[in-house]
Amino acid sequence: MITEEQSSQAVAEILGRYRREKKNLIPLLQEVQTRVGYLPRKALQEIADFLKMSDVEVWGVATFYNQFRFIPLGKYHTVVCMGTACHLAGGRLILEALERELGIKVGETAEDGNFSLERVACIGCCMLAPVAVIGDKIHPKMTPFKVEEALIPYRQEAGGELREGKSRGKS
Ligand code: FES
């Protein structure tokens, strides 16, 4: 995970390439999120200062669009496809099963930082519907009953790391 210092450096570098114009707010938010992975509160403040806008104004714009995240993604970012083919094949049930199993809702990251959950539009493999992606692995033809089993290797890996003292702090 990116450290606070790395995040500040990235934000400073990005701001250095933009003019101080309000119309640059959305592109700035997008670029910072791409580099940092989410929009830390400090970055929002730095953007507000740069554009000479109030924190509230920047926060209001950022929270208006659901493309922006305000917490880091989990180590194993989990997405459930809700495109037409996956939706018709039971994508909603997969999503609900993952919410139950992970103890988080869509758009959230688990407190231990291991899993985050999102819904996405078609990811381009409709023949395998319904599809979930955990970490970087596609899980085709998912069913709610396969969810717990699909999570086992990730939980084992995360558990192993914790035992080895490699737990990750959230920023
Ligand atoms: S609709 Fe899910 S992969 Fe296309």
| Strand and helix order | HHHHEHHEEEH
Category from helices, strands and their pairing: alpha+beta
Q: For the residues shown, what is the average pLDDT?
A: 91
**How far do the termini sit from each other?**
9 Å
Number of helices: 7
Q: What is the helix fraction of residues, given as a range?
A: 40-55%
Gist of the model:
The protein is of the alpha+beta class. Helix content is 46%, strand content 11%.
How is the topology of this model organized?
Blueprint: H1 4-15, H2 25-36, H3 41-51, H4 55-64, E1 76-81, H5 84-88, H6 91-102, E2 115-120, E3 132-134, E4 137-139, H7 147-163
Parallel strand pairs: 1-2
Antiparallel strand pairs: 1-3, 3-4
Helix pairs in contact: 1-2, 1-3, 2-3, 3-4
This protein binds FE2/S2 (inorganic) cluster.
What does it look like?
By secondary structure, the protein is of the alpha+beta class. The protein has helices spanning 4-15, 25-36, 41-51, 55-64, 84-88, 91-102, 147-163, and strands spanning 76-81, 115-120, 132-134, 137-139. It contains seven helices and four strands. A four-stranded mixed β-sheet has the order 2-1-3-4, with helices on one face. The protein starts with a helix and ends in an 8-residue tail after the last helix. The chain binds FE2/S2 (inorganic) cluster.
Characteristics of this structure?
7 helices, alpha+beta, disordered C terminus, binds FE2/S2 (inorganic) cluster, 171 residues
